[in-house]
Specification:
The chain is α+β, with helices and mostly antiparallel strands. The chain contains 17 helices and ten strands.
């Protein structure tokens, strides 16, 4: 142990006349502990919510969407073959998307249809993960003639919130009204076709479950009078976090006549808001550590006043100003280090407990998660610990400077 460390550690041990200094030191440590612990818990929960939101978004959207600037795809098979040759592309499939009106026996609601090719395993698996009632097989077996000669309407899969708003359930029929109708002597008449609910899905995102229906791509092309055309092409990549590089490769291959968007671009506003909220919470909770830093500065100032005679003796014995300064800087750093370590241990323990035991429950109909999602990040914890130590270190500079510039002659005269 060096000279400065030895003296500084001795100064932290309060004598009978200096119990107030010891209590102030303990309060400073507790302040840093609470600040670090609160930061780790809040940032970990926000990171968990962000990961949960990304998973839910990727469950209902593709990694990259490609549309044609002029409108519909008419010769999309050639484009699909080009996309399959690009590195990191896992699967490619066409889709049809449009806005329609749904009419049930009791009410009317707007919705977005998504026509998919369920013969592609990836598309079938993505939808099956969200199904809570019905099956894909029921959807594929629809639109077939029955034994008695009657016609069975084609099937669809809708979000559970949309099913609630329309008051329909599994097996019920409703009408899909398309804006692409026909011209008649009475004006433009919208196209209308009867469908049957073959499945109900729950993605965990209210905005999606209240406004989305899935159907076979051929049925969507018929209701939208698109023949063999499609709205766009979706693809999934091997690495969702390097999707921007894949998007740039696709743009080079297809050229400027196509519009290519990745999932980060399509949800840019949402993720920007989450990032801003995370930074804001970090700044707000750092103020707790800043308050503790003022307590550290006050504790060191009182310590300098209590140790004026000792500082004068050390200087008279030949101690340099930088060594006196280092003594009190190490005192403050020790207080900050102790509070940071205890706060990190308590914060990590609390996060692991939340993750394992899930003793805090949330209303599922509001947040679509029943427990707090937690993700511990070594980067976040390191940044929090470094910020706390830096603030505590800066709080020691003024008291240490005052101790170093103390005149030993004046100290002996008045002590």
């Amino acid at each position: 142990m060096g000279f400065e460390s030895y003296i500084g550690f001795r100064y932290l041990k309060a004598r009978r006349k200096q119990r107030f200094v010891s209590a102030s030191t303990l309060i400073s440590i507790m302040g840093v502990t609470v600040g670090v612990m609160a930061l780790i818990i809040v940032i970990s929960i926000m990171a968990g919510f962000e990961d949960e939101l990304k998973q839910r978004i990727l469950a209902v959207t593709s990694h990259v969407q490609i549309t044609q600037n002029k409108g519909r795809f008419k010769t999309h098979e050639t484009v699909i073959q080009q996309l399959k040759k690009i590195d990191k592309v896992q699967s490619v499939y066409p889709y049809v998307q449009s806005q329609v009106i749904l009419k049930s026996a009791s009410t009317v609601s707007g919705a977005s249809i998504a026509g998919l090719d369920f013969s592609i395993p990836q598309q079938r698996q993505d939808v099956e993960k969200m199904l809570v009632k019905g099956s894909i097989d029921d959807l594929l077996h629809q639109s077939l003639p029955l034994a008695n000669g009657n016609y069975q309407p084609p099937g669809m899969i809708m979000g559970q919130e949309l099913a609630k708003s329309l008051s329909v359930g599994l097996g019920d029929s409703l009408y899909v009204i398309s804006p692409r109708g026909i011209l008649s002597p009475f004006g433009h008449l919208p196209a209308m076709r009867r469908f049957q609910v073959s499945g109900i899905m729950a993605s965990g995102m209210y905005e999606f479950d209240i406004a989305t229906i899935y159907m076979r791509i051929h049925d969507s092309q018929k209701i939208m009078r698109m023949r063999d055309s499609i709205t766009g092409i979706s693809l999934k990549t091997n690495d969702i976090y390097q999707v921007q590089e894949t998007r740039l490769q696709i743009e080079k291959v297809l050229g400027s006549q196509f519009r290519v968007q990745d999932w980060i671009q399509m949800n840019q506003n949402l993720f920007s808001a989450l990032k801003l909220e995370k930074v804001t919470m970090f700044i707000i909770l750092t103020l707790i550590i800043l308050v503790a830093a003022f307590n550290i500065a006050g504790t060191l100032i009182m310590m300098v006043m209590e140790r004026t005679r000792d500082i004068a003796i050390l200087k008279a014995m030949g101690a340099q100003n930088r060594r006196i300064r280092r003594i009190f800087m190490m005192n403050g750093f020790f207080i900050g280090l102790t509070g940071t370590i205890i706060g990190a241990i308590l914060g990590i323990t609390a996060c692991l407990s939340l993750k394992k035991y899930q003793f805090i429950e949330l209303p599922g109909d509001v947040y679509y998660v029943t427990t707090l999602p937690v993700r511990l990040s070594v980067t976040d914890i390191s940044l929090i610990a470094f910020s706390a130590l830096l603030i505590c270190f800066l709080a020691t500079l003024y008291p240490a400077h005052q101790a170093a510039t103390l005149n030993p002659v004046e100290a002996f005269r008045y002590e």
